[in-house]
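Design a sequence for this backbone.
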């Protein structure tokens, strides 16, 4: 046994078979004395990783949110008229989204928390202009949503203001407000919207001949919220950092934006029903004003003014050339023969009329073409 030593494992015969022993102490001598402990060799055999694979939870990446600002007309009349809305979405949604703001590109402070994603998407087909105030039964508007869903409503709910939405090019000012009665799911996340009421809340003056495919769609269901903006902040460039509230605004997941907001809740609607008539060699124009506040009731004897005084800006154009600029205090104006001669007005001309606001300036314009 001279070749054995401490740490060696030997096998000894026992009833039932061989048993393994580890030598802990060995004394050299005529007979050799050893102290040993029985061991189980299987404890020291390696195991295959394939038998017990390590399963890690799938990581959910934080993706940048997609925000849109909407400087909209008053919807309920209870909003801050000068503050824009923000709509945000992401897939997956990271939880509350923080909107940090500053009047310069530093020292940002928390402005607003967006708690829920907006129902937001893009159009997959063009939408042609339609007459406001009556149901548009044209081709369905095809919309693909980033997330969320749409549903149809009854005629009664539609007339009560349900399914209000905005379509636009993504800039903060250029949004047409409309409603839809039917929303048919035609593919995952894809809807066809029909039975539309176009140019709502005075946005008919912003309706183009056609909204192209790729225009943005935002459901105005109460999820888009107004940001904090002082009245003195109108028309002043503001800087924003927008991203997951769980991360600092220095994180890669934040988007930096800048914008100046006009405060379109203060903007007068464009007049309607422009008309002309000749009185000898003079031209008389007339129109009807509209109210951005409290003007929806059929019981009103007169349309509310919504401004401190009644004033309009009148322009006459020949092509792109401005021939005349006037301010009038009633919903009519006479373009006298003497004015026409002085302006050199002849051929196809265009009249533009906008109501004036002391807080906003000229509102949306109504255009009317005529010939002299």
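Sequence:
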């Amino acid at each position: 046994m001279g070749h054995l030593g401490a740490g060696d494992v030997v096998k000894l015969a026992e009833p039932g078979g061989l048993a393994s022993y580890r030598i802990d102490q060995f004394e050299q001598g005529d007979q050799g004395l050893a102290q040993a402990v029985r061991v189980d060799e299987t404890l020291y055999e390696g195991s295959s990783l394939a038998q017990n694979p390590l399963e890690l939870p799938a990581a959910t990446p934080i993706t940048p949110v997609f925000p849109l600002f909407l400087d909209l007309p008053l919807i309920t009349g209870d909003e801050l008229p000068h503050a824009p809305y923000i709509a945000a979405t992401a897939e997956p949604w990271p939880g509350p989204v923080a909107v940090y703001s500053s009047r310069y590109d530093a020292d940002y402070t928390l402005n607003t928390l967006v708690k829920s994603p907006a129902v937001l998407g893009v159009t997959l087909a063009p939408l042609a202009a339609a007459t406001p105030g009556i149901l548009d039964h044209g081709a369905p508007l095809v919309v693909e949503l980033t997330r969320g869903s749409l549903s149809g409503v009854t005629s009664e709910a539609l007339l009560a203001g349900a399914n209000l939405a905005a379509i636009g090019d993504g800039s903060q000012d250029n949004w047409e407000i409309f409603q839809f009665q039917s929303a048919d799911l035609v593919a995952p996340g894809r809807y066809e919207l029909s039975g539309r009421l176009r140019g709502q809340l005075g946005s008919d003056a912003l309706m183009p001949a056609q909204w192209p495919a790729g225009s943005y769609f935002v459901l105005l269901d109460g999820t888009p919220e107004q940001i904090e903006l002082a009245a003195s902040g109108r028309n002043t460039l503001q800087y924003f950092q927008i991203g997951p509230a769980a991360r600092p605004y220095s994180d890669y997941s934040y988007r930096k934006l800048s914008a100046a907001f006009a405060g379109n809740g203060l903007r007068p609607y464009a007049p309607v029903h422009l008309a002309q008539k000749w009185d000898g060699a003079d031209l008389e124009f007339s129109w009807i004003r509209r109210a951005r506040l409290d003007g929806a009731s059929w019981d009103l004897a007169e349309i509310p003014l919504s401004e401190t005084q009644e004033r309009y800006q009148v322009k006459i154009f020949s092509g792109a050339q401005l021939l005349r600029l006037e301010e009038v205090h009633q919903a009519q104006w006479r373009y006298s023969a003497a004015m026409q001669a002085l302006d050199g007005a002849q051929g196809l001309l265009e009249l533009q009329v906008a109501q004036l606001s002391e807080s906003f300036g000229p509102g949306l314009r109504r255009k009317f073409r005529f010939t002299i």
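The mean pLDDT is 91.
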